[in-house]
């Protein structure tokens, strides 16, 4: 079973990296060249930033799942490991949303609160 968990984690890591790279290169950049994107907050900049961080959040989530599978494969597995991995995944979600939206998309705050709640729950 351990080998299968490692294999699944490796596949998630690969698909995550491919998703971010290929999506950015072949989908997002081409999409953002269009002149008919919705204009929120006075320009299409917010729309572009929101689509970009939403796209990459998926990749971060898959990396988080890979980390969970690696934790499950570990002989030192504990429920605390799961909480900390999930908290770290949402810290990354929060940071990406905050950075790419320049704080305008409030999801960063929700992701940060989830992270803090999980860290507090772990103690």
From TrEMBL:
It comes from the Bacteria. The chain crosses the membrane at residues 53-73, 80-99, 105-121. Keywords: Membrane, Transmembrane, Transmembrane helix. The keyword Membrane applies. This is Uncharacterized protein. It comes from Pseudoalteromonas viridis.
């Amino acid at each position: 079973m351990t080998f299968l968990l490692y294999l699944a984690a490796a596949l998630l890591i690969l698909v995550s990296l491919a998703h971010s790279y290929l999506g950015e290169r072949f989908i997002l950049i081409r999409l953002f060249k269009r002149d008919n994107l919705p204009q929120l907050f006075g320009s299409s900049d917010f729309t572009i930033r929101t689509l970009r961080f939403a796209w990459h959040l998926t990749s971060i989530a898959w990396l988080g799942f890979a980390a969970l599978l690696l934790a499950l494969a570990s002989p030192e597995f504990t429920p605390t490991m799961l909480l900390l991995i999930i908290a770290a995944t949402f810290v990354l979600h929060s940071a990406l949303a905050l950075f790419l939206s320049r704080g305008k998309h409030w999801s960063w705050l929700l992701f940060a609160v989830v992270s803090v709640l999980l860290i507090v729950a772990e103690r």
